[in-house]
Design the sequence.
């Protein structure tokens, strides 16, 4: 049985930041990682580009975090976006700021982020053992004493649980940490997929498969009441809807689906025009091209692949002359452009979810240290905590900041 000052379970961004900071302060640090390589999930973030962080201020950043962004005030005040950028630049990573305040490695390679963090921890003599799945936390008289992994005992009076959530389970995020925490008395807020595509009823989305819409507005309706909206880009798939604004709104939808509520999305294809302005434009175009067939004028209104589906939904004759379109038919066209409706049946699984919502309740963690309120010497960091955020680098920053604070506190 070898004894360490600190044992960290999980070699993702939260675990590596915790290890590096604890080692900087003189700790003898061991990371136990169940996969055969470190940072498997980090490598696939941002489609392999790795959206490192965001340049939002702390107050703004917190508004993008759910369900309790204020819990992170102390963590962010001690280690924030510029701190991770400085650390990565020190180890050779050039960083570029892109639209939406998103920082990426200039190389567009997430592997550069992982290698920089590994180089940092290696210089600080952090020991990393891969292929070591922790089976149990060893607790005595309300205090952590170590862990057991594959029957081997590792002793430490400080342990950080940074095992991630349940999303992308092939990378090792299979929810192991929830069970370890539950064994020592912690409550787990039910993990659900977040930032995840959704499936739709009917065949409309499937008929539009592959179409990418930009600058549209999506609105979520729960039991007929407006519950959220987002503006930007979305994609139609063989199962339903995806893309940035759908992922952003998915948290609302998944929770409602779990509660067996009716979930719908309406898509406004012309958000820059209100109903009156859009009606005037439709009327003008129909009058100016009165002898043309309706299908031809639609080409100036919608993407080509959307036109046959749109006309089918409207039950219009595509060869009808524009001057023959009635006021009632024009109203139906206008309404569908502003309210293309989809019934949501399911979310996709954890295999396609970017992150996990749910986890260790923030009510059971000390925000100034990340230490458990139940077990002395046990700390939490990263996605295992019941905190999740929108896309844009927010979730990785939560991992860095909570990891650094845990490593610093102990």
Sequence:
């Amino acid at each position: 049985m070898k004894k360490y000052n600190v044992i960290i379970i999980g070699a993702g961004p939260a675990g590596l930041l915790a290890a590096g900071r604890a080692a900087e302060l003189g700790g003898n640090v061991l990371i136990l990682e169940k996969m055969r390589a470190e940072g498997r999930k980090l490598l696939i973030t941002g489609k392999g580009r790795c959206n490192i962080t965001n340049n939002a201020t702390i107050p703004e950043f917190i508004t993008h975090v759910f369900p309790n962004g204020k819990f992170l005030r102390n963590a962010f005040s001690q280690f924030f976006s510029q701190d991770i950028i400085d650390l990565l630049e020190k180890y050779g990573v050039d960083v570029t700021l892109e639209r939406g305040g998103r920082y990426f490695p200039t190389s567009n390679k997430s592997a550069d982020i992982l290698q920089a963090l590994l180089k940092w921890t290696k210089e600080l003599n952090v020991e990393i053992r891969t292929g070591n799945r922790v089976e149990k936390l060893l607790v005595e008289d309300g205090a952590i004493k170590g862990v057991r992994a594959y029957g081997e005992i590792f002793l430490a009076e400080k342990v950080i649980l940074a095992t991630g959530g349940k999303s992308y389970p092939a990378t090792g995020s299979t929810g192991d940490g929830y069970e370890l925490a539950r064994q020592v008395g912690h409550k787990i807020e039910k993990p659900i997929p977040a930032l995840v595509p959704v499936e739709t009823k009917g065949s409309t989305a499937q008929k539009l498969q592959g179409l990418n819409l930009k600058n549209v507005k999506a609105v979520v309706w729960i039991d007929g009441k407006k519950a959220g909206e987002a503006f930007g880009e979305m994609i139609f798939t063989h199962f339903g809807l995806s893309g940035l604004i759908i992922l952003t709104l998915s948290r609302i939808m998944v929770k409602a689906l779990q509660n067996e509520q009716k979930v719908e999305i309406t898509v406004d294809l012309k958000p820059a025009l209100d109903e009156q302005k859009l009606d005037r434009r439709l009327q003008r175009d129909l009058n100016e091209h009165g002898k043309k067939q309706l299908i031809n004028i639609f080409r100036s209104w919608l993407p080509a692949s959307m036109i046959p589906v749109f006309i089918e939904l409207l039950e219009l004759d595509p060869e009808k002359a524009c001057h023959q379109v009635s006021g009632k038919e024009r109203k139906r066209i206008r309404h569908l452009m502003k309210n293309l409706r989809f019934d949501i049946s399911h979310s996709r699984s954890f295999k396609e979810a970017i992150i996990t919502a749910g986890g260790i309740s923030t009510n059971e963690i000390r925000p100034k240290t990340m230490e458990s309120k139940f077990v002395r010497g046990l700390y939490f960091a990263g996605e295992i905590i019941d905190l999740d955020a929108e896309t844009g680098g927010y979730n990785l920053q939560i991992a860095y900041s909570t990891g650094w604070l845990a490593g610093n506190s102990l």
The first strand starts at residue 2 and ends at 3.
